[in-house]
Amino acid sequence: MYLTSYKSLSHRLTGLALLLVAAGAMAQPIYRNVDKNGKVTFSDRAPAASTEPAAGPQSAATPASTAGLPYELRQVAQRYPVTLYTSEDCAPCSAARTLLTTRGIPFDERTVKSNEEIEALQRLSSQSSLPLLTIGTQQLKGYADNEWSQYLDAAGYPKSNSLPAGYRNGPARPLIAAQQAAPASRAAAPAAPPPPPPAAPSDPGAGNPAGIKF
Q1: Buried residues in 8-46 as b, exposed as e (16+ CB within 10 A)
Q2: Which residues pair with 135 in a beta bridge?
Q3: Domains and CATH numbers, the chain
């Protein structure tokens, strides 16, 4: 009789222990983790404190080249983006690139190599000489240290390098993006160059000797 009671009590205690384990498992919190690529996973382990938050989609109005810039510089770069048009074996182009890099100007570089790109440059600036610099809607044709500096000053760019450590401008890109091979039955249309911004004023007023208008 006592043996039967002991076995019954033992079974009851074992069942109670299993219930407590199951309840503890059910009460254990589940964590939702989202990695940098947006992949969602569920785990019973809390994410590490050093885990980076998932990167959200960038705003279409925010150029990628302005990410990580100080607030004031980012505002200027978004309002008056700088684009440098260059070609190979072009000493003035190298000098222009050095000026922008040394001063800490975030800029986009477009290269002109093919005949199609030369034609696109002519439509853009009414000439084929390089370098060409655009600051917002302004076009500066040919490298001139003082003139370029005046326009950068007028746009509000800092006169000394204020870029964060480790910042790098994006790699130079062709003026016309390469087309993927199209089916033989339908040839790909040539890529349209960016719309030309208005040319810089050629007749400065007396109150604005540099002719700078933004």
Answers
A1: eeeeeeeeeeeeeeeeeeeeeeeeeeeeeeeeeeeeeee
A2: 82, 138
A3: 80-174 (3.40.30.10)
- Contacts of 58-64 with CB under 8 Å at 24 or more apart are 63/108, 64/170
- Joined together, the tokens standing for residue 176 give 């016309």
* pLDDT higher than threshold 50 for residue 3: no
Is the torsion defined by CA of 189, 193, 195, 196 positive or negative? negative
State the pLDDT at residue 166: 87
How far apart are alpha carbons 113 and 110 in whole angstroms?
10
Is the alpha carbon torsion for 89, 91, 96, 101 positive or negative? positive
What DSSP character marks residue 187?
Answer: P
pTM: 0.57
Whether residue 160 contacts residue 104, with contact meaning beta carbons closer than 8 Å, is answered with yes
